[in-house]
Here is the input.
Amino acid sequence: MKYRGSCHCRALTFEVEAPADLNVDDCNCSICSKSGFLHLIVPLSKFTLLSGADKLTTYTFNTGVAKHTFCSVCGVKPFYTPRSNPDGIDVNVNCLDTQPNSISIVKFDGINWEQGAHKLAYKSVE
Here is the structure.
């Protein structure tokens, strides 16, 4: 199924291909819990930025592998390059404009990321 999504002001719009029934991760690390990010990690080939490349701003911290991209107009982070899958993309399900049939949410212990990262590593594989 193809989903459309956007930031709050719609300067950033995108399309992502994923199943009609989504399994997503709810991470308790500091950046995810503060931003309300629900993780849908997919291969980069399943993601298309439709508009707003010129409005993207990137924030990095810690190892610098994750590229936290957000809209420079409204500040919303609808997707980013995750540390666990730097060859993929992580879409915030809360930013989807098209709704899935169902969403199953799995808790992920991002506070102890090093111990659990292997549980996410397969998600961006084609």
The two ends are 15 Å apart (CA to CA). Residues 33 and 102 are 22 Å apart (CA to CA). The helical segments are 30-35, 113-116.
